[in-house]
Design goal:
The chain is 39% helix and 15% strand. The protein has 351 residues and is of the alpha/beta class. The strands form three sheets. It has a seven-stranded mixed beta sheet with strand order 2-8-7-6-5-3-4, sandwiched between helices. Strands 9-12-11 form a three-stranded antiparallel beta sheet, with helices on one face. A two-stranded parallel ribbon has the order 1-10. Helix 2 (45-51) packs antiparallel against helix 10 (254-265) and helix 11 packs parallel to helix 13. It is globular. Bound molecules: pyridoxal-5'-phosphate (PLP). The modification N6-(pyridoxal phosphate)lysine is found at residue 221. One of its GO terms (molecular function) is histidinol-phosphate transaminase activity.
Length: 351
């Protein structure tokens, strides 16, 4: 057994709605607002696409997800040889870490970001530098100052989970211009479809200028397909060719590929999700005193509090399951009715 695995623990899901109801004596419905899922679900066209392929379940999928790869290639206008799919970004992060990292290598990322960068680096016996947040968001200067000869990967998350914050196009461009070209900078854009800020990075354009800028995108969040497990990386062709060697041959299921195709095709639905989310997101910022909330470009909001567990419990009693962190609570933006309840709790809670 790899010794470093003892440092880690398996992913801890929160209590199930049923267990929570029992523990807190809650009547009525509980809403899962802890994992940033799209409560509206995927485009209705996804169901049709899936049912059309129900007679193929005995067959392995085509290796490498060629249909959705072609569609993404056209959608983003990038060469299909620069795209690699995984069973969600979780698997993409695992594959990259496995392919790149070995004992003594170093990754640089931020504290309070997506945990899988850290987790997979430790599995590969790499060292992890987690740069503290600055003003509630990524400290790109601080990250840059940690990049050295041992650094094999830099992980950025934009907008960041769980803080909800983002860095701008100009900030990312300046950052990339100062990172040595041979060090991959991986930018996780799991929430990019929810972004409405004008100065958010056009990372595809930056990729043309910086061949070491790699992008992660997923169908799990705005596209509403978290249960189907499909996400991808857009990177330099040489990197993709290497990473593809360690990809499990049939990692993305048939139905997942067809679901993603149908979801991608229905951009009007995606637009409606973005608009609804932005409207509800604005409601929080219009109604709750701003020092309590981090700015957000995502489908969740990070509430700053010194009493996260108490706030989590107060929200739970109103039927909303959220996620607590050491210095705050992350709430997924829900349906209007739940958002109104959560806003009321936030306004009455002494943070
Ligand atoms: C949800 C999330 C992921 C994982 O997405 P999957 O594609 O469902 O594995 C990756 N990165 C960030 C920042 C996320 O929030």
């Amino acid at each position: 057994m790899k010794k470093q695995i003892e440092q880690l623990s398996a992913y801890q899901p929160g209590l199930s709605p049923r267990a929570l109801k029992e523990q807190y004596g809650i009547e009525g419905e509980l809403y899962k607002l802890a994992s940033n899922e799209n409560l509206y679900g995927p485009s209705p066209k996804v169901k049709d696409a899936i049912t059309q392929h129900l007679d193929e379940l005995q067959f392995y999928p085509e290796t490498g997800s060629p249909l959705i790869k072609e569609a993404i290639s056209e959608h983003l206008n990038v060469d299909p040889a620069r795209i690699l799919f995984g069973a969600g970004l979780d698997e993409v992060i695992l594959m990259i870490s496995r392919a790149v990292l070995t004992k003594g290598d170093k990754i640089v990322t931020s504290e309070m970001t997506f945990g899988q960068y850290y987790h997979n680096a430790i599995v590969e016996a790499a060292d992890v530098v987690q740069v503290p947040l600055k003003d509630g968001g990524f400290d790109l200067e601080g990250i840059l100052s940690e990049v050295d000869d041992n650094t094999k990967l830099v992980w950025l998350c934009n907008p960041n989970n769980p803080t909800g914050t983002y860095f701008t196009h100009d900030e990312l461009q300046r950052f990339l211009s100062r990172v040595p070209q041979e060090i991959p900078v991986i930018i996780d854009e799991a929430y990019v479809e929810f972004v409405t800020a004008e100065d958010f990075p056009n990372s595809l354009a930056l990729q043309e200028q910086f061949s070491n800028a790699f992008l992660l995108r997923t169908f799990s969040k705005a596209y509403g397909l978290a249960g189907m497990r499909i996400g991808y990386v857009v990177a330099a062709q040489e990197a993709i060719e290497k990473w593809n060697i360690i990809r499990p041959p049939f990692n993305v299921g048939r139905l997942s590929e067809h679901a993603a195709l149908a979801a991608l095709e229905d951009q009007a639905y995606l637009d409606s999700i973005r608009e609804k989310n932005a409207r509800e997101r604005a409601k929080f910022f219009d109604s709750v005193s701003s020092h309590k909330l981090n700015p957000s470009q995502t489908n969740f909001i990070f509430v700053n509090t010194s009493r996260p567990h108490e706030l989590y419990e107060a929200l739970l009693k109103q039927g909303c399951i959220t996620r607590e962190f050491p210095k705050g609570v992350r709430i997924t933006i829900g349906f209007p009715e739940q958002n109104d309840k959560m806003i009321e709790v936030l306004n009455n809670f002494d943070l």
